[in-house]
Write a structure and sequence with these properties.
There is one protein chain. By secondary structure, this protein is α/β, with parallel strands linked by helices. The strands form 2 sheets. An 8-stranded mixed sheet has the order 4-11-10-5-6-9-7-8, with helices on both faces. Strands 1-3-2 form a 3-stranded parallel sheet. Helix 1 packs across helix 11, helix 3 crosses helix 5 and helix 7 packs across helix 8. The chain starts with 7 loop residues before the first helix and ends with a helix. The mean pLDDT is about 95.
């Protein structure tokens, strides 16, 4: 359900009709039933929130019935829209933990998350920079990455869509140069390759482009040596491992080539380098996918939008696409 003070509850309810009618899945919501009922009232959907004890009961999901596995205690009912609140953070954490555990146990096939507020979750005592790190910890993995994925469609030439994988994630800019290594760049290139292979037909090899860290790709060391000492060696190692990869290329031009179909995936060095470009291409169609987990997890590609929360105007596009991609990945896994 995400943070109760944000737009998570209303985009779930607002997207429900299209999810039921368009996507081959049986959805069930992990969250607080009363918060979801408030979203039903706000969106005037007329649906009934039906508390259930197990994901097995999600077959109840219809246009008029939204099954909900209760998570979080009743303190979350006191949370005000658009306000950072520890009770909202706690309820969001409980929903994530419950859904992740259900996926690890094989009770559900995929997890789709609505946005959380990192500050609220930290106030509740759960000290993670974001969903990605929390999920990795919960799943017990250390080799993971955040990927933004834009399905085929408007602004994207490739029929495979376009993915951007980030070497560093929720990291302060001052620290980025200290944590990028040959191994970290190589690991993300491998994760990007593995994901794109999983969705491409016929076992084709995806084409991967790698961003530089410095302006003009360092201009052969004039603006920094990271491209020469770290990124280029990582690309060469990846290529030697049968990954079709090239770079590093200047970040201000590589996404143009990717948009035009030259690459199926791009490895970005830091958060905004990848996020800004992909969101400009399709903010409300983009999907956040966590790579390296033993479960399928997708998410919306936006935040809690406290300034828009509980006004009934939040865009549901990214939530619909996140569920669509999760269902597609789950069906391929079968």
């Amino acid at each position: 359900m995400g943070d109760a003070a944000g737009i998570g509850p209303e985009i779930i309810v607002g997207a429900w009709k299209q999810i039921i009618e368009q996507i081959p899945c049986r959805p069930v919501v992990f969250g607080h039933p009363e918060i979801l009922q408030r979203a039903v009232t706000l969106c005037r959907s007329g649906a009934e929130i039906v508390p259930v004890n197990s994901p097995d009961e999600s077959v109840l999901g219809t246009l008029g019935r939204i099954p909900c596995i209760p998570c979080g205690d009743d303190n979350v009912k006191r949370v005000r829209p658009g306000v950072v609140d520890a009770w909202a953070g706690e309820a969001a954490f409980q929903a994530i933990a419950s859904a992740t555990d259900a996926a690890l146990a094989g009770k559900i096939d995929a997890v789709v998350t609505a946005p959380i507020h990192k500050g609220a979750m930290n106030l509740a005592g759960h000290h993670f920079p974001g969903h990605t790190e929390l999920l990795a910890h919960r799943c017990g993995v250390s080799d993971f990455a955040m990927m933004l994925y834009l399905p085929p469609g408007e602004n994207i030439v490739s029929k495979n869509g376009l993915a951007v994988v980030h070497v560093t994630l929720h990291t302060a800019m001052r620290k980025i140069f200290d944590v990028i290594t040959v191994d970290s760049v190589l690991a993300k290139a491998r994760l990007a390759d593995k994901f794109m292979r999983s969705i491409m037909d016929g076992g084709k090899r995806p084409k991967i482009g790698v961003c530089s860290l410095n302006p003009h790709a360092g201009e052969e060391g004039l603006f920094g040596s990271e491209e020469i000492e770290i990124i280029r060696p990582a690309v060469e190692k990846a290529a030697a491992g049968e990954i079709e990869i090239d770079g590093p290329f200047p970040a201000d031009t590589i996404m143009i080539d990717a948009r035009n179909g030259k690459y199926d995936a791009v490895v970005a060095m830091f958060h905004d380098q990848g996020h800004i470009a992909l969101k400009l291409l399709g903010m409300h169609r983009a999907v956040n996918i966590t790579l390296g987990l033993p479960i399928i997890r997708t998410s919306v590609a936006h935040g809690t939008a406290f300034d828009k929360a509980w006004k009934g105007t939040a865009d549901t596009g990214s939530m619909i696409e996140a569920v669509r991609v999760a269902a597609k990945l789950a069906l391929k896994k079968e």
